[in-house]
Amino acid sequence: SFTESFRKSNSHTPIVLMGYINGFLANQSEFSNFSQHGVDGVLIVDVPGEYSLGDIGFQNDSILSVSLISPTTSKERVSDICKASSGFIYYITLRGVTGANKINVNEIHENLLTIKQSTDLPVLAGFGIKTAEDAKNLASCSDGVIIGSSIVKMIEEKSESKEFNETVSY
User: Fold this and answer.
1) Which residues of the chain have pLDDT under 50?
2) CA dist 121 → 30, 142, 156 (Å)
3) 109-141 per-position pLDDT tens digit
4) What is the number of alpha carbons within 13 Å of residue 104 lying toward its C-beta?
């Protein structure tokens, strides 16, 4: 598998599979083997964050569960989501779809402080990180920055040539 191949040259970078529950359900028999294939965690985007992996029928104590929290998530839900998570919290920095709006660092900072009161897990910020300045601003108030938009853009731009060796500096 791709993850096993990657693990041959890199054993330290965490691998988190992100997708919808139907994809995980279709491969439920493999879920118990994910860690053997080099997978560290999963983010199932269409399952409410209050549910642990066990709550939805996936049993594998080696796999971490990552949950999403958005700017509109209530404080009560934040606490419940943090309790159900085991990997890290993925804080969505935008109100809207990825790449749509400009990030509001002050609001993000306040929301991250609220989240960190409910968990000892790392809280990473992502969605709409378009520039090095965005990444640096978010790095100052989060435990990490997720730059998926930049990677997707690079893949799109290089899809004809298949030259994906470009380094993105932040």
Assistant:
1) 99, 170
2) 27, 11, 33
3) 999 999 999 999 999 999 888 788 888 999 999
4) 11
Token duo for residue 129? 């990180």
Write down the pLDDT at residue 103: 77
C-beta pairs of 26-35 under 8 Å, 24+ apart in sequence: 28/57, 28/58, 31/58, 31/59, 31/60, 31/63, 32/59, 32/60, 34/60, 34/62, 34/63, 35/60, 35/62, 35/63
Helix (H, G, I), strand (E, B) or coil at 169: coil
Structure tokens at 3: 């993850």
Task: Give the count of alpha carbons within 13 A of 29, CB side only.
Answer: 1
- Collect contacts of 29-33 with beta carbons under 8 A, ≥24 apart: 31/58, 31/59, 31/60, 31/63, 32/59, 32/60
Please give the sequence-ordered ranges of beta strands (E in DSSP) within the chain, or none if there are none. 16-19, 41-44, 64-65, 67-69, 89-92, 123-126, 144-146
Characterise 41 by phi-psi region: left (phi > 0), alpha (psi -120 to 50), beta (else). beta
